[in-house]
Amino acid sequence: MKRAFASACTAALIVALTMAGCTANETDQSDSARQRQDTSAENTTSQGRELTDAEQILVQRAEELLVKKCMEGEGFKYWVGPLPTVDDLKGGGYVLTNADWAKEHGYGSRLEEQVQVAQRNDPNHAYANGLSQKDRVRYSTALDGGPSSGMLTAELPGGGAIQTPRDSCRVDAKDQLYGDFEAWFQVEKTATNLTALYAPDLVKDERFVNAVKDWSACMREAGHDYADPPQIRERLPQLTKGLSTEKAYAAEVELAVAEATCAVQTPLAATARALQTEYRDNKLKQYSEDIAAYQRMRLAALARAEDITGSTA
Question: Where is this region: Disordered (predicted)?
Fold first, then answer.
């Protein structure tokens, strides 16, 4: 899970205020890191809605439970997790807009550290490493698949393609959740890779440029001279270099709170959201069916996840 605390993902982060991060991989990775990337606004279709953070986590938990069942069927042990919390999924994007969250978490550096510790301590890694070489290969193939099982290919809206194995426990879990993994793979890779089709024009829009200037002026009045939010992320490591852990975190929190406060006191947050809706409506009409299918399949997965976990978000 990548956060805004890391270096900005240029144009993609500029418009997606609620993104968790962005990727440029050419092969498939876990959906959990990508699900929120390009679908933060319900603007190209009225046939669905976006999942809340809590709902996304519930779907991820159900997926992990299905993976566990599948892996056990293959003769391996598997532990569910680690899963993100609702707080983990907040705070990403071009600019922070929640001053309360920023006051508690800054740019999320400590949350990111907690995630990294949880990943390092994931019992699945220790278990796999304790297997013989032969069983480790079988474990990896059962969990993630491989070329020998055949590959699915999805064409990306901005060009290029992405592939994933046709058969694995992760595929089996998604197939059960979304109803048809191959169809899900196609629409998910379309719906979550649309930013590049409109971001270059949006960031040049005079309304957006002026909103960023207003935000920058607000920050200067607060004692922080930055041209735009990504510049804070770029400079923060150097600003906190040599400081104690507590002082570095205090500096992070101070900047994050100022950023979020200015984002809502100036037109930046509202302008970015409005422009994203406008540009997506105008430029993504040809993908409206894919986006609608993506939303419907996620809602169907949520319903199945509730049955699988026996709980609601």
Answer: 27-52
Asked if residue 220 belongs to a domain, the reply is: yes
Number of domains in the chain: 1
Q: What is the pLDDT of residues 16-67, one digit of tens each?
A: 443 323 333 333 433 433 344 444 333 433 457 999 999 999 999 999 999 9
Between CA 64 and CA 76 the distance in angstroms is 14
Q: Give tens-digit pLDDT for 171-180.
A: 999 999 999 9
User: In terms of residue numbers, what domain contains 268?
Assistant: 11-309
